[in-house]
Amino acid sequence: MPSKPSKPSARTLARHPALTAGGILVTLVLALALLSLLWTPYDPTHVDAAQRLLPPGGGHVLGTDQFGRDVASRLMTGARTTVFVGVVAVGFAVVIGVPMGIAAGMSGGPLSALLMRVSDFLLAFPALLLAIMLAAVYGTSTLTAMVAIGIASAPGFARVARAATLRVMAAEYVDAARLARRTRAAIAVRHVLPNIRDVVIVQVSVAFATAVLAEAALSYLGLGTPPPTPSWGRMLLDSQELLFSRPELCLWPGLAVAAAVMGLNLLGDGLRDRFDPTLEGVR
């Protein structure tokens, strides 16, 4: 089997500024989400009409919204909601897409074609359409958003895993495993999975960025996380009527979504360059 890349060092990170910048942004978002589990300045769902629309500063760092809720607390809790939805949705997509891609790459022939047609069928249903369909049947909920995003992301993992598996199956060490009468399951676990890990990790960062955007969009449209649970998309929806009088209420969740997506995309580019140096500098 080919040698695995060494762990990132300070020199490696200096050669990959996108990896460093993306890692910092993603770490900040994760830290904000984890901190919200233990502490927030105020109860993010507490309504206080006497404190409504306070400007940033004083006891409320980012001010309050039209219901008197602390914006900073809601932003922190929204990070937790976004990370939770993203992790579950992407994990769901990995569980569905990666085994499908590996099976298609290892089998070939009619089975591979069938699995890829199933992937194409899933690809035809974007997360928004799936969320509308699921919401009509099961009602609006965080689970609905997670399942819709996960199903919509699975075809990407299937295609990436299949392409990487085809390259692995052409390697000599796989031929040696076949001559040693290793089963397909053993080849998949021992040889395929370790050697497609890097491309799957890169796809995870890309899919996570897509999931952040999808969750925000679904919440904005009322198809994602229902109130009173804070989410960045819901904050954008609640603040749109105050866009011209209090634009900062739209600015904070918008910047949070932009920072998370940019960080994940930069992290994905950096990981791609790290795992495949031949692509470094190629765009």
The biggest sheet, with number of strands, parallel, antiparallel or mixed sense and barrel status, is: none
Distance between the termini: 29 Å
Secondary-structure element pattern, one letter each: HHHHHHHHHH
- CATH homology superfamily name: MetI-like
In quaternary terms, these chains amount to single chain
Structural class: mainly alpha
Overall outline: elongated
Q: How many domain regions?
A: 1
Q: How many helices does DSSP assign?
A: 10
Number of strands: 0
CATH second-level architecture: Orthogonal Bundle
CATH topology: MetI-like fold
In percent, how helical is the residue content?
A: over 70%
Residue runs with pLDDT of under 50 for 5 or more positions:
278-283
Strand content: under 5%
Radius of gyration over C-alpha positions, nearest whole angstrom: 22 Å
Reading off the top of the CATH hierarchy, the class is best stated as Mainly Alpha
Notable features of this structure?
10 helices; transport; disordered C terminus; transmembrane helix; cell membrane; BP-dependent_transpt_permease; mainly alpha; MetI-like
